[in-house]
Amino acid sequence: MTQKWVYLFKEGSAKQKSLLGGKGANLAEMTNIGLPVPPGLTVTTEACTEFYKQGKKLTDEIIAQIKENLQLLEEQTGKKFGDESNPLLVSVRSGAAISMPGMMDTILNLGLNDISVEGIAKKSNNERFAYDSYRRFIQMFGDVVLSVPKYKFDYALEDIKEKNNYKSDTELTTDDLKGLVKEFKKIYKEETNSDFPQNPETQLLMAVEAVFRSWNNARAITYRNLYEISHDIGTAVNVQSMVFGNMGDTSGTGVAFTRNPSTGEKKVFGEFLMNAQGEDVVAGIRTPLTIDKLQDIMPEIYDQFMDIAHNLEQHYRDMQDIEFTIEQGKLFMLQTRSGKRTAEAALRAAVEMVGENLITKEEAVMRVEPKSLDQLLHPRFDPTEIKKSTPIAKGLPASPGAATGKIYFTAEDAAMATERGEATILVRKETSPEDIEGMTKARGILTSRGGMTSHAAVVARGMGKCCVAGCESVYVDEIQKIMSVGNIKLTEGDYISLDGSTGNVYEGSIKTVEPNISGNFGQLMEWADEFRKLGIRTNADTPKDASISVKFGAEGIGLCRTEHMFFDEERIFSVRKMIVSDSVVQREKALAEILPMQKNDFKGLFKVMGIKPVTIRLLDPPLHEFIPHDEEDIIELSEDMHMPISKLKEIIVSLQEFNPMLGHRGCRLAITYPEIARMQTRAIIEAAIEVSVEENINIVPEIMIPLVGVKEEIDILRKLVIETAENVKTEKNSNLKYEVGTMMEIPRACLVSDEIAEFADFYSFGTNDLTQMTYGYSRDDAGKFISSYRELGILENDPFQSIDQIGVGKMVDIAVKLGRKVKPHMHMGVCGEHGGDPASIDFFHRVGLDYVSCSPFRVPVARLAAAQAAIRNKDQSK
Amino acid sequence: MTQKWVYLFKEGSAKQKSLLGGKGANLAEMTNIGLPVPPGLTVTTEACTEFYKQGKKLTDEIIAQIKENLQLLEEQTGKKFGDESNPLLVSVRSGAAISMPGMMDTILNLGLNDISVEGIAKKSNNERFAYDSYRRFIQMFGDVVLSVPKYKFDYALEDIKEKNNYKSDTELTTDDLKGLVKEFKKIYKEETNSDFPQNPETQLLMAVEAVFRSWNNARAITYRNLYEISHDIGTAVNVQSMVFGNMGDTSGTGVAFTRNPSTGEKKVFGEFLMNAQGEDVVAGIRTPLTIDKLQDIMPEIYDQFMDIAHNLEQHYRDMQDIEFTIEQGKLFMLQTRSGKRTAEAALRAAVEMVGENLITKEEAVMRVEPKSLDQLLHPRFDPTEIKKSTPIAKGLPASPGAATGKIYFTAEDAAMATERGEATILVRKETSPEDIEGMTKARGILTSRGGMTSHAAVVARGMGKCCVAGCESVYVDEIQKIMSVGNIKLTEGDYISLDGSTGNVYEGSIKTVEPNISGNFGQLMEWADEFRKLGIRTNADTPKDASISVKFGAEGIGLCRTEHMFFDEERIFSVRKMIVSDSVVQREKALAEILPMQKNDFKGLFKVMGIKPVTIRLLDPPLHEFIPHDEEDIIELSEDMHMPISKLKEIIVSLQEFNPMLGHRGCRLAITYPEIARMQTRAIIEAAIEVSVEENINIVPEIMIPLVGVKEEIDILRKLVIETAENVKTEKNSNLKYEVGTMMEIPRACLVSDEIAEFADFYSFGTNDLTQMTYGYSRDDAGKFISSYRELGILENDPFQSIDQIGVGKMVDIAVKLGRKVKPHMHMGVCGEHGGDPASIDFFHRVGLDYVSCSPFRVPVARLAAAQAAIRNKDQSK
Fold first, then answer.
1. What is the DSSP string of B209-275?
2. Which of B473, B659, B789 is the best residue to mutate to test the A interface, defined by the most A CB atoms within 10 Å of its own CB?
3. Quick one: pLDDT at residue A372?
4. Three-state secondary structure of A648-691
5. What is the mean pLDDT of residues B604-631?
6. What distance in Å separates the CA atoms of residue A231 and residue A249, rounded to the nearest whole number?
7. ipTM
8. Residue B878 above 50 pLDDT?
9. In this complex, do B664 and A784 lie within 8 Å of one another by their Cβ atoms?
10. Residue A714's closest CA among A692, A739, A731?
């Protein structure tokens, strides 16, 4: 049996999106529920794939089917292609399964030639209209199908207007237009070396090929890369008999949404123009009227349209975005699709549709894009102000929100300026842990280097603070205190504005508006919580972050990084003494100074979290990150420690590493400096005991050992932690319970997870490091090639943002399976950046983790994404 | 049934080594083949394991069996423990399955007490002998079993000698010795709070426990870590009735090898002393006689001994190391074991034993330790000179061989001094690719930092040059041009000597002797080649290295690193221009300068290798490694390129990376700078075509794309290589064949090997990087903790030296299996450092690779190891 490559609209349905494209499937659906749709046909996406398989050629079979169906279309409409009295004209439009701008522009009026133009003239009783349509068609066809430069046609048009001293196109006479048709055909021939095709079938086949070719034009490829759409699915072509909104005063055209796409309000929202074509509405030359005005002009059409709009929403059970045309008093529907909407509108519509019994709670949960919630949780630029601004640079949208302030180039300067009451933006090549205080105080952070998981990005997301990272077109000179981009030079104190949701950087100050989380938000979250199976924890190091995350619905802390606690100004001195100590005694003395501070940190966290679980990771980063670099600091330290400067510098140099990410960090520190792990364990256990007593609750802290790769590491450290903890419990006469687990972030650990599991009460997957090592990409350096990789289609996504399911994911899967073989009920979570990414969350749900942990501002995103994962995978599971 | 914990010698055999220990098993074997062995019993290694299981206690069952067997021993010998006329005395010795110094010293004369001492006096008719033995026994027992400080006994002895003004121990009278026994018992009681045990059974049980405890003393643990022996196998205890070599002129004792352990010559080689105990031979106080002198003294005993020696070698089919004692004219065998030998001796003995039909060729191949061949391939220190020297420091034995020369602290200084005719040693903190020339010219290399796979180590091994790396006790100041270690300060031009096989560093100059590869070497290699299944290739970048490796038997080049070719003084300038170019045109111009040089490099290699396969890896390291750091070089470059210094410095900074190992390197360079890969491909293909024509052969170059992690990388680059290669072939009218493959070194690539295989003609596993990323250990930095890790038993081996079979190995296994699923016959090899490590080679054989590739001087090691792997795994395979 031969394959069916072409479908009449009446043969298809909305279910066939992947075959007919979104547009084609919806046209078919509307046709079949009896709405007034101009008849047409769809060439399938499979024909597109076949076209490419044949080396960009339509097969004979496809051509034959197009011709056959064209005949059926002629029968349906009672018109004939190229006819001199009642010719069939069609529009040709691309339409992929996923809505995708960037492909071929529409071709209207296909079927016009030297004969049928006369037929149209007769039929419309308007010769000028016919020739105007014809010259437009030649230009459109030449431009779109054969890349004849548009300006050549435009120049010819301008010539005639100048010669006759016309101000506007409407002054062109029928004869002018007839002359223009000749001129356009001449241009066409000069540019393409062939005559303008007079056979409408030839026109159509050429147009179909052009649509298929446009699937792989640069814009379309870029778009697919950007939105993670497969390059293999192809586009369909829709061929639809023309209706004209510009056939006089009883004609018109418009677009409408069944609900307000900005607010979600349940009220048809649309615009239309009388005596106009679709392009005119979009182009903005004439100001369209709001849809309610149609009631005054054509009340019956208005009622009919309102009915159709209501029915379409009821039929599709979602807010629709509709295009319509009125031809000489008759209403035609040209398109319907699910309407794009803001996060706010999506929320409101979803919640209200449940109230209207239109959709189920599960459907409502599926209707809101989790990532879009970010918009609702952070300050945004005032929408009217931002429309007037043009960005001067674009970096990575590292942490969402908007911020305006004066630029400062060092963390100290930014902190001081903030204390003076200024709004500040910290601008750095990159940030380091020493900059924490300045980062906390600035409104936003801009870096010229680093990727989505660079220090600046990770810390900013943790703080819920706006950050644009890796903005490579900006040159930052921290010594001279200037930043430059193109010809623009900005110095300390100048204003800039950052949009962390888009990566845009603006010169000057732009007003921001605060987030307003409405009741619909809470309602949707409640439903999400009903469906999700994954627990949601947060990555938080401070009581402040912990409080925010609890407000957002976090059920525990999945990762408390203790190193941030070491950078506090009061402590860093003791920390440094500890590190450069060349004896255990000296080190223990320095650690004893830090102990009470660490204990208070943990008490603060435990007080906020109550009995919710808190996972605390022992010290992780390479020690040299804590080491002083300023001469001044070095001198101070050397004096306090009675250590010669030369010796101190020798120690500092000896701590440097070529590849610190692969160096002396994580549990490797705890092995070589067990006294650090002992101090931290003591601080955790003492804090947990004290808060348990004070609040009369039972806290069960989870102590996490980072960077384990070899079972002996966790064996030794687990013993050390337990020994210390039991000593503290004996001292305090407490029967506190606690758990000791590990961060799974070394590829080897995943491969030998059955060995590691013996010594772990829980796993938390550190997918940042795991991605880093599985790919061999340094988070700090990969920015140099990851963007080219995405442009070239080598990487569909940044693997640090969305987990690589087939590579890194396989690693996680292996680890979960091997671990559960040994301990079927061990709790396992993920605390990498991926814990807040919806696609990753879907994966973690499928792989069987117990929870995800993400930065506080991502908690609502994660709750929703987890619910969607549960709903989406319901059939597969159990 | 109760377990048998104790065996009489006559109950065991040589096959029971793991149960009875090596010594016990051999004593049993000798007993059963009718040799004169003093009767005894062995407490098994399982009893040792049980001892630890019970919290370091002998179970009642074990104690009961010891006592039972003791009774049988009394019956066998006709003597009785503690008897006043014919007492049984025994020696107690430890004996693990693998010979292991560091455990308990021997206890002799156990069974002596206040009664039996009289029995011995009567029986030997020598009261002085009896009391001398008794006081020695108390000291030995106190020291070894209960850690009574030895010096306390020594002081007491000295006191008596001083009081009586004796010069030597032989002047002590029987009464003195009786007094000393009393004194020693007093010391024993003071130190242990208990009386010296008079019951011989108690003595024995205490001694057995002491042996078991000694299994876990610090020295023994260190030894096991060093030689990779499991800590779980335990030791046996041998209890043997005493015979005395010091019972007068017809008594004596000695040791002998059945062949010469230094040369392998087939002639019994031994030494003995009359009227002496075993310790006297070893201690070196009296000079022993050579074994042939025994013929003059006791001809019958001599003949009997020679017979036994011959029979033992025939029985064990290996060279034996034998201990014997003559007691009053009667010969006793106390021990036999496989004799330790030099590599030279091992080779000669193995080859000659095949000639004697004593062993098979397979056995001969198994008899030589592959790693020991290194000794034969490099210069060594003159054995007599080295005996007189004490090392001043010890680093890692990074590249074998010995070297003496004047020290220089920069590569340039070393190169210049060499050109002046001096023998030089390059001393650096660490080396970098810029030092290549100096490294080539120096006799040896010493670094104070870096591990076994640091730059210095890898490059030196590649060159077959002596190198001691990571010698942390040496402080190197390259600016001041001094090195210091302890109180020794050496400056430029001072002599040092390095032993790259041991890591020892000596002050001053020591004579070296050149390697002498005898015919036995070639013979054994020939046999090895008969058995091995793995091909052996080499890692070589230069014609010189390639020639050496072919001489050593390499069958191809498994890895030619092209980056070393870029550092050549003449080229580095062009290379730098290429890197800092900010336009493709400029970069291509610089590359055009490099092309002819690269082509000549490859022609040189192809000429040496002929039709043997040559795998050439495209440029791998991060570009910044090539960048100038000296102000002078930067100025020169900026002038030549007409580029402002500030701009050049900006580019240099922008190339820096935080973690270069995980950065912009490998195929990531080829993706972002495709013109580099195109130039290299052109150079390879042109060279292959030209040499094929000149030599009238068909060269099939293998082009290897490094660091692939994602299938799109190899897809794109494979196309680029093929396109370039086909262009060159068309230009040159050639039909050259070539292959395009990838280096498997990224964990992700292994996990998705089925995807990668589609685009690869071959795989070469880069196990250095694979280990680096699977463990998350930087080769450059891991030295900081790997040594602690080995001491703590966290790592049994340095995973960069011997492949981690369960983690990294699983990764290789996954990759091989997934790859072969797609392409069952794809050839796969390994080119990491592990390719020259025998244990790793065994693994690669089992996992089904086709070849290993190692540095030229490792080729013979690899040939032998591959043969052993094939023999060892013969039963398992097929």
1. HHHHHHTTSHHHHHHHHHTT--TTS-EEEEEEE---TTSSTT-EEEEEESS-TTT--SS-EEEEEES
2. B659
3. 86
4. HHHHHHHHCCCCHHHCCCCHHHHHHCHHHHHHHHHHHHHHHHHH
5. 92
6. 44
7. 0.79
8. no
9. yes
10. A739
Q: Do B778 and A671 touch (CB under 8 A)?
A: no
Task: With beta carbons under 8 A apart, name residues in chain B contacting A804.
Answer: 748
Beta partners for B625? Answer: none
Q: Name chain B contacts of A781, Cβ cutoff 8 Å.
A: 657-660, 662-664
Q: Which chain B residues are within 8 Å of A795, Cβ to Cβ? A: 710, 712
**Closest residue in A to B778 (Cα–Cα):** A662
| Residue A236, SS3 per DSSP | strand
CB-based contact B716 A782, cutoff 8 Å: no
CB atoms within 10 A of CB B406: 21
- Do residues A181 and A131 lie in contact, with contact meaning Cβ atoms separated by under 8 Å? yes
Q: Which chain B residue has its CA at the smallest distance from A753's CA? A: B807
Retrieve residue B705's tokens.
């794309």
- pTM to 2 decimal places: 0.80
Chain B residue with Cα closest to A745: B776
Count contacts between A and B (CB, < 8 Å).
Answer: 178
Residues B240/B40, Cβ–Cβ less than 8 Å: yes
Interval A359-373 mean pLDDT: 94
Measure CA of the first residue to CA of the last residue in chain B; give whole Å: 40
How many Cβ atoms from other residues are within 10 Å of residue A610's Cβ?
12
| Cβ–Cβ gap B659/A713 under 8 Å | no
The candidate with the shortest Cα–Cα distance to A275, out of A311, A250, A302, is A250
Tell me what pLDDT residue A878 has.
Answer: 43
Residues of A in contact with B663 (CB under 8 A): 778, 781-782, 784
Distance from CA of B126 to the nearest CA of A (A): 57
Q: Which amino acid is at B817?
A: K
A453, A623, A658, best to mutate vs chain B, most B CBs in 10 Å: A658
Q: What is the pLDDT of residues A249-299, one digit of tens each?
A: 899 999 999 999 888 999 999 889 998 887 666 655 677 889 999 999 999
Distance from CA of A651 to the nearest CA of B (A): 13
Q: φ and ψ at B787, to 5 degrees?
A: -70, -40
B304-332, pLDDT tens digit by residue? Answer: 999 999 999 999 999 999 999 999 999 99
The minimal CB distance from B778 to the residues A662, A748, A811 is found for A662
**Distance between terminal CA atoms of chain A?**
39
* Number of helical H runs and strand E runs in chain B: 35, 33
**What per-residue confidence (pLDDT) applies to B574?**
87
Which residue, B466, B680, B714, is CA-closest to B560? B680
Of A751, A781, A807, the CB nearest to B748: A807
pLDDT in tens, B719-751: 999 999 999 999 999 999 999 999 999 999 999
**Residue B564 vs residue A572, higher pLDDT:** A572
Chain B positions in Cβ-Cβ contact with residue A775 (cut-off 8 Å): 709-710, 746-748
Provide the pLDDT for residue B633: 87
Return d(Cα B660, Cα A541) in angstroms, integer.
30
| A736 or B382, which is more confident | A736
**pLDDT category, B876, cuts 50, 70, 90?**
low
| Cβ <8 Å between B710 and A806 | no
User: Which residue in the set B671, B780, B806 is minimally distant from A785, CB to CB?
Assistant: B671
Residues 6+ apart with CB under 8 A from A601: A542, A562, A565, A683, A687
